[in-house]
Amino acid sequence: MNTSDPEFIKTEILKILNKIAPEIDPDTVDPQNEITYEFEIDSMDFLRMVVKIDEVFGIEIPEAEYGEITTLEKLLTYLAKSN
Amino acid sequence: MLEVQQDTIETTYREAIRMAIREAMQNDERVFLMGEDVGNYGGCFAVSMGLLEEFGPERIRDTPLSESAFVGIGIGAALAGMKPIVEVMTVNFSLLALDQIMNNAATLLHMSGGLFNVPVVIRMATGGGKQLAAQHSHSLEGWYAHIPGLKVLTPATLEDARWMLAAALEDPDPVLIFENSTLYNKKGSISTEVNKVNIDKASVVRNGKDLSIITYGIGLSKSLEAAEILKNEGIDVEVIDLRILRPLDTETIIQSVKKTHRVLIVDEGWRSGGISAEISARINENAFYDLDTPVSRLCGEEVPMPYAKHLEHASVPQIETIVKQCKNILQHERV
Amino acid sequence: MSEYKMPSLGADMEDAILIEWKVKEGDSVQNGDIIAEIETVKGDIDVEVFEDGVVEKIIAQPGQKLPVGTVLAYIKTDISSSPKEAPDEQPPKEIPPVEIPPVSDPPPTIPPVEIPSPAPDPIREPSPPEITPVKDPIRKPTPPEVVLPMTSINEKNRPRASPLARKMAQNLGIDLQQIKSSNESGVIHKVDIESFIKNKSKNLKPVIQVKEPQESKKNKMRSAIAAAMSKSNREIPHYYLETSIDMKIALDWLRKENSKRSISDRVLPAALLIKATALALAEVPNLNAYWTNEGLQQKENINIGFTISLRQGGLVIPAIQKANQKTLDVLMEELSDIIQRARTAKLRSSELTTGTVTITNVGERGAEKVFGIIYPPQVALIGFGKIIEKPWAINGLLGIRPVLSVTLAADHRATDGIIGSRFLEKLNQLLQNPHQL
Fold first, then answer.
1. Number of folded domains that form chain B
2. In this complex, which chains have at least 3 CB pairs below 8 Å with chain C?
3. What are the b/e assignments for C351-362, b being 16+ CB within 10 Å?
4. Which residue has the higher pLDDT, C8 or B261?
């Protein structure tokens, strides 16, 4: 499993988000817009996402760096960089 | 079995009231009768015929044609310890004395902090049916029932005509008695026994299970006749005589509604803002979930009372319209 | 013996469909056990029993749509008495299951609403002429009295039934949609209920369980919220207070605290706000209360209703029980659990009925301030806005601070502004001392 493959990261992230917000169709999401807005998630959902990312990728995102993962695009970049 | 023999006498509504007045005057020297034409003429509906000869002009007093003045005098006399019976010819004329009735009789107990009560009894004729047209024939008792501080009695039976006056005179506060003018000639027999009637409860005059007619005054005898007709068609109607419009006996009404689940209110007064509206509202407030059909009303047409006989007849509830309305209500569920 | 009834899970709930029983006759149950699952406009809810006993008799069958208050089962609470004792209340046990129509069926036929023509009664017509000025020779007749039909949008599918028929149907656990009126007006009367029962006992039909389509459920939730909020807005004289709270100390503390924790143990500002609200309410108990016909009733427990919006639309307000007595960690755990279950429609009945005050936190999604509508019979709603950096003056110096706008919507029948003010001031003090939360 190549955890730094962008396609793999994207697939896994969308899986995580789909679990948290199953009502949202990822195809309709604007990757440059805020995740919280696009997936209609609140701070608790966001925390669940961060916890899941840790579980799947082994990446602990510190609170101070939340600013770098606000959109889907930024999040994917961040994860690719961290791997 | 012990059989109680009661003596009864044949009489009329008019005579029953006269008996009541005579008895009150005999029993209590503070009682006197006052009004337009009550003395020499014997009353415009001949209720006080003969009383002047019996009790003299001190106690059977003819007054000038000024309702405001003589009703006011009656209130003053009551305040001073007398027990006046004031007769006003018709409820239409009583409007000239409305200021005295409402602003003085009904309020003085309250405004004097309970020091001065006003034990006046004011009698008046009400209702149409005698071709006296729009200035003599209305049924405005529902208006008076609006006023706190008054009691409003509507004797519909010979018993009540005979006995309500005594109860009214015993009451420490102003009491209005509305006598339907078409009832004066009503004949019947009543017991000679003293009958202390209450003046706070309605009475179930006829028991039934399909529908409750709630009525008073002239509506009672019409409703009872309608109930007889309906009985032959298999409809079992309960008839309630309100007897008193203020205070209204909500409990008896509600009990009946809970039994029959359907209501027709028969009131010769006008519909808009009338006593029938008040009754309907109370049923709604207290027995909404027991209603199987909307509360129905049969009221006087909203016109000044016509003079022409056939129009006057058509203006107020009649036996045939009551029968028809009852059937309409029941047809809500019979197609 | 006690009656186990369809619970009311809020002022906006009218009925629910019984999905399944989690117990059977003869089972022992304890206070707090989940004994059934129901489907409401707010999702599927696990309903609990609130006493110890034995399930004596199950009345309602899965698939039945049942109004609030319908007896679902009898619970024998006095274990020592004879187990063969019959239920005290007779009527429900003879009632066979009511069939819910398949989704594809057309909606129940409601006759078109007509403005009734004036009664055919000959003497009521015509109305008298109006008195008109002399100059105008033509008199207009008074228009006949018109009785306006009583309809509103969410009433469209409501069967027309007399109040008595409605009450009977409710007592018997019958869905009025199943009853056919025997007369032209289409109104269901007592006689129709009676003949329905007669026919049903002759002709038992199988129970069909039908899930309502998502769309109609959504509309129903919208209607339920509309009804509850309209009622609140109509009946409750709201007053609003607002204050801005400097969140620097609280957020700094939280950041430090979270840096020591693993990701899954991080505490969110929401938990801090819930705890601070609960503690402030303990000091100002008049806001932690119900307003009923008897007036203000203070509530002993502080159960914070937390508004959760659902992505499919609408919202639910489950309560976190006794929030003032719980640590931040426990609050986080419960908040996380409750949000996930709310989203998957798996709340417990007690969570929807026990809230004593409501928090709305829409600020998290962007709005700077929120002025909410109280959820009756509660008397207060606290709205948290977005935390925004703002210029902030302290001791004559200007700095940039994260600022939180807090609003209080309160019932003026229950409290006055001074009480509300006291609450906001207390809340501010607590948030300036986050380590004590």
1. 2
2. A, B
3. bbbbbbbbbbbb
4. B261
- As annotated, the residues of chain C forming the CATH 3.30.559.10 domain(s) are 237-436
* ipTM surpassing 0.90: no
pLDDT, position B189: 93
Max Cα separation, chain A? 31
Is B214 domain-assigned? yes
The pTM for the full model equals 0.49
| Whether B211 contacts B237, CB under 8 Å | yes
- Point out the domain boundary residue: B165, B191, B217: B191
| CATH number of this structure's domain C1-103+155-235 | 2.40.50.100
The pair of three-digit structure tokens given for residue C418, joined into one six-digit string: 């001074």
A14: exposed, middle or buried (Cβ count in 10 Å: 0-12, 13-18, 19+)? middle
SS3 B253: helix
**Is A44 part of the contact surface with chain C (CB cutoff 8 Å)?**
yes
CATH number assigned to the domain with residue range C237-436, chosen from the 4 options 3.40.50.1820, 3.20.20.70, 1.20.1250.20, 3.30.559.10: 3.30.559.10
Q: Which residues contact C274 (CB under 8 A, 6 or more apart)?
A: C304, C306, C320, C323, C331, C335, C359
The reported pLDDT for the residue numbered C120 is 45
CA–CA dist C254, C261 (Å, integer): 11
Distance CA C40, CA C220 (A): 9
Give the residue among B224, B206, B208, B212 at the shortest CA–CA distance from B292: B212
Beta strands per DSSP E along chain B:
8-12, 31-35, 60-62, 83-90, 121-126, 151-153, 175-180, 187-191, 203-206, 211-215, 237-241, 244-246, 263-270, 296-300
Q: What is the residue range of B291's domain? A: 203-331
Q: Is B56 left (phi over 0), alpha (psi -120 to 50) or beta?
A: left
Say yes or no for a CB contact (<8 Å) between C182 and B315: no
- How far off is chain C from A5, nearest CA to CA, in Å? 24
Q: For residues C435 and C437, give the distance between their C-alpha atoms in angstroms, rounded to a whole number.
A: 5
What residues contact C249, with CB distance under 8 A and at least 6 apart? C431, C432, C433, C434
C202 — pLDDT class (breaks 50, 70, 90): low
Cβ of B289 within 8 Å of Cβ of C191? The answer is: no
| Claim to verify: residue B211 and residue B129 sit in the same structural domain | no
Q: Identify which of C71, C64, C98, C79 has the alpha carbon closest to the alpha carbon of residue C28.
A: C79
Using the predicted structure, report yes or no on whether residue A3 has a pLDDT greater than 70.
Answer: no
User: Where do the DSSP E strands lie in chain A?
Assistant: none
What CATH number does the domain located at A6-82 have?
1.10.1200.10
Per the DSSP assignment, residues forming a β-bridge with B47 are none
- Name the band, by pLDDT with cuts 50, 70 and 90, for residue A10: confident
- Closest by Cβ to C258, choosing from A45, A51, A63: A63
Q: DSSP string spanning A23-43?
A: TS-GGG--TTSBHHHHTT--H
Residue for token digits 């760096």? A65
C434 neighbors C250 (Cβ within 8 angstroms):
yes
Produce one character per residue of B274-295: b if its CB has 16 or more CB atoms within 10 Å, e if not.
Answer: bbbbbbbebbeeebeebbbbbb
Residues of chain C with Cβ-Cβ distance to A42 below 8 Å are 270, 339, 361, 364-365
The answer to whether C37 and C72 are in contact (CB under 8 A) is: no
| 8 Å CB contact between C240 and C424 | no
Question: Does residue C143 belong to the interface with chain B, where contact is any CB pair within 8 Å?
Answer: no
- Asked if B298 contacts C168 with a C-beta cutoff of 8 angstroms, the reply is no
Selection from C102, C88, C78, C74 nearest residue C5 by Cα: C74
Query: What is the per-residue pLDDT across B211-261, written as a single tens digit (0 to 9) for each?
Result: 999 999 999 999 999 999 999 999 999 999 999 999 999 999 999 999 999
**Contact yes or no for B230/B222 (Cβ under 8 A):** no
pLDDT at B85: 98
For B155, the token pair is 């004797």
